[in-house]
Design goal:
By secondary structure, the chain is α/β, with parallel strands linked by helices. It contains 15 helices and 6 strands. Helix 8 packs antiparallel against helix 9. The chain is elongated, with a radius of gyration of 21 Å.
Amino acid sequence: MARAENKEMVSAAMRTIAGIARLLRKQKGWSQEELGKKIGFTGSAISAMETGAQPASDQMLEGLERELGEGSGIFEQARLDLRLEKYPRQFKDFALLEQSVVTLSSYSVLVIHGLFQTEAYARALIAGGYPPLPSQRVDELVEARMARKALFDRDPPALIELVLDEAVLRRPWGSRDIMREQLLHLAVLGQRPNVTLQVMPLDRALRGEHAGGRGGLTLVETPDHEHLVYLEPQDESLLISDPTKVSAYAHRYAKIQAQALGPDESLGLIERLAGEEQ
């Protein structure tokens, strides 16, 4: 039954790329088992991909490009296109924009920003949401979220800033081990030359100095130097381009940054909290 349901969920693009893979495999005279061995999968996994019972993963598409693509780039392009299909509907447009930004500046108040999440943290977060999702959909969303990390190593590199509310660091997801791994991962990313990581301490609200009380936000600068604001309340999304509104959000973010701990002090807090999770 699960395999039948999977076939109904496969997109037209995935069916097309599966048909191309099957055609090229047969042209080479390879069985499904032979192709599978060449790219590190079982013959049954290749069969499931070709019939639509299980969509191809990033890893499988990379192998198909290597063994069948022969420099055409067809499976590599499919990998990028299919990755976008895995994102929630409301996030797809921003996911495409995010890959090309010059700068990204974000304030997160509930969970670690998706770019900074470990796989285990992302899985605990996505699988623990409501309404619950099928395991295959959880796998797809986790894989798609991890793929966004390519932004850190892009050439030229994007300049990435993140301010995390301290409550985010103290809110565990999954288990203490998962949270400790996540905090250590944050500490490593915070030391990258193209990343600035800060923490908004809890006591700012007590002192009446908290500019982030209206929730999280993300500011981006495009390659054309257009400045945009992205908001994501609940399961909706809003991309704002109006210069007056963008300016207001930019000033608010600057105030949030000014009220947050400095990068070194923030890193020290993150490392100390990681130690407490042992």
